[in-house]
Amino acid sequence: MGPFRLETCARPNILSLQPYRCARDDYKDDGTNILLDANENAYGPSLDVLGSLHSDCSNPNGAIDPKKLDIDLLGLHRYPDPHQTELKQQLCKLRNLHTHTTRDLSPEHLFVGVGSDEVIDALLRCFCTPSHDKILTCPPTYGMYAVSAQVNDVKIVKVPLDPAKEFQLQPKAINAALSSDPSIKLVYVTSPGNPTANLLEKSDIQQLLEHPTWNGVVVLDEAYIDFSPDGASLAEWVTEWPNLVVMQTLSKAFGLAGIRLGTAFTSPEIARLLNNLKAPYNISSPTSALAIAALQPDNIAVMRKNRARIMEQRQRLVHELPKISRIGRFLGGTDSNFLLVEVLDKPKNHGGKPSNESAMALYEGLAETRGVVVRFRGKEMNCEGCLRVTVGTSAEVDRLLAEIPSLLKDEKLIDPSTNGGECRTKKAGEMKEQEASDVVA
Predict the structure, then answer these.
(1) Per-residue pLDDT at 439
(2) Which end of the chain is less crowded, N or C, counting CB atoms within 10 A of the terminal residue's CB?
(3) How far apart are CA 339 and CA 311, in angstroms?
(4) pLDDT above 60 for 429
(5) 29: helix, coil or strand?
(6) DSSP 197-251
(7) What CA dihedral angle connects 140, 141, 143 and 147, to 10 degrees?
C-alpha cells in the first residue's frame, strides 16, 4: 500500500462531521405515508398553468400540465443566466411593500442560491475565517447553521431564545456576547422560528443592528414568512441597514421545495461579495423558469389560496389537538405552517408532564404503524416532549387527529414500561431520541 491515509489527509473538522440528516432519512416517501415532517406545502406548487386555481385539494399536482410551463428544453445545452436579473426583479416586486421603509429593493440587493442552505454557507465563507471567527445562534433553531459552521471550521456561540417569552430573542444577552467577543461575525436568527413557529419582535432585531461597537452582520432567516401576517417580512429593511441579510425561499409557501431556490436580500455591497464568490451558473435554467413563473400574479394567487387553506387547517389543529388528554401546550407561536406541541407522560387531569419518551413513542408509532410522519424535537433546547407537526391538507389533518388518540390509548406503544421484553433501555432510548432530533429539516 502507498502512503495515503484518509484519516490524516482529510480535514479534522470534516472527519468528525455528523452526516447531514434530513426528514426523508428516517421514513421514506413511499407514496402511502402522510408526510407532516418537513414543513413542505401539502397543497403542492403554486403553478396555475391551466389558468384556473387548483380545485382538487387532495391531488393538487394533477392540474399541472408540464407542457404549458415556459421552460426552453431545447436551450438546455446552453449555460443559464449567471446573473438571474429577471428573477431578481420579480423577487423585488414581491417584497417592495413599503411597510418598513419608503425605499425600493432592486436586483443589486439580491443573491440567489441553491436553496437557503447555499446562502447560509456563502455567508460563512464570506465573513468567517476558519479556526478563528465565530457565529452566534439562538437555539432552538434551524440545524443547518451548525452543520455549515462545522464544515467551515467555525465555532458557535449560543444565546437561547427565551422560553418564558414564547421563544423571543434575548437582545441584551446577545449584545453582551457580541461586545465581549469580536470574533463573532454573524448572528443567525429565524423568524418565524424553526421549530418554534413564532415571529421575532422587530424591535429586538433592531437592537442587534444598532450595537454600538460590533462589526458584524445580522442574518434573518424568513423561510416561513409568507405564513405570517401580511407585511411581516423585513426584506425591504435591508435598504436601511447595511449590516442586515434577510434570507427567504420558495420551498415553503410557494410549494417549490424541489427546485431548490433560496434568496438573500441585503445591501448591494454584501450582495456583490456573495455574487463574486458563488459558482458561475449556480441556478439552473429550469429552476429559474419555474421560479419566475411562480412569481407571476396568477401563481401568487394560487399561493395565497393554498396558504389560506393551510391557515384554516392550522387553526383547526390549534383548536382540536388540546382536546386530546395527553397532548400538552403549544410552544412558541402559530405564524408558520407547522406547530410545536408537547406530548405528556399521562393525561393532563392526572398531572401529566412533557415526556421525551412518550413523544418518541408517539412519533415512532405514528410513522411505523399508522403511516403518519411528524418530527421529534424533544432534544432541542427547552423543547422537552415536543413534536413538530406540519400542517397538512384537510384529509391529512383528519387522519392525524384520528390516529393520535388511537395510539395514545395503546399502552404497549406509548408506555415502553408495559412493552415486556421489547422495552428499550434508557440509554438506547436516549440514543434513538438523539438520532431523531439530529434531523436538520
Answers:
(1) 60
(2) N
(3) 11
(4) no
(5) coil
(6) --PPPHHHHHHHHT-SS---EEEEE-TTGGGSPTT---GGGGGT-TTEEEEEESS
(7) -100
- Residue 298 grid cell: 396568477
Stated pTM of the model: 0.90
Query: Strands 375-376 and 386-390: what pairing?
Result: antiparallel
299 contact partners, CB below 8 Å, separation of at least 6: 46, 47, 48, 293
Task: For residue 70, report the phi and psi dihedrals to the nearest 5 degrees.
Answer: -85, 70
CB-based burial of residue 117 (10 Å sphere; 0-12 exposed, 13-18 middle, 19+ buried)?
A: buried
Using 50, 70 and 90 to split pLDDT, how confident is the model at 420?
very low
Burial class of residue 293 (count of CB atoms within 10 Å of its CB; 0-12, 13-18, 19+): buried
Is the preceding peptide bond at 140 cis, omega within 30 degrees of 0?
yes
Neighbouring residues of 383: CB distance < 8 A, sequence distance ≥ 6:
140, 195, 331, 340, 377
For the record, the C-alpha cell of 186 comes out as 454573524
Q: Cβ(327)–Cβ(345) under 8 Å?
A: no
Q: How far is 251 from 227, CA to CA, in rounded Å?
A: 12
The residues, ordered by sequence, that sit 6+ positions from 385 with a Cβ below 8 Å of its Cβ are 328, 342, 343, 344, 345, 353, 354, 355, 356, 358, 359, 378
Evaluate whether 250 touches 294 at the Cβ level (below 8 Å). Answer: yes
Q: What angle do CA 86, 88, 90 make, to 5 degrees?
A: 75
Cell triple for 294 = 411562480
**Contact between 72 and 285 (Cβ < 8 Å):** yes
Residue 281: all three cell numbers together: 451558473
Structural Rg of the chain based on CA atoms: 22
For residue 366, give the H/E element and its range.
helix 356-369
Task: For residues 337-361, give the mean pLDDT.
Answer: 96
Q: What is the pLDDT of residues 55-85, one digit of tens each?
A: 444 444 444 555 556 677 768 889 999 999 9
Residue with cell 406509548: 414
Distance CA 113, CA 274 (A): 10
Over range 335-361, report the average pLDDT: 96
According to DSSP H, which parts of 2-134 are helical? 6-9, 12-15, 85-95, 115-127
C-alpha cell at 38: 418537513
The gap between the terminal CA atoms of the chain, to the nearest Å, is 41
Residue 94 CB contacts under 8 Å (≥ 6 apart), including other chains? 295, 300
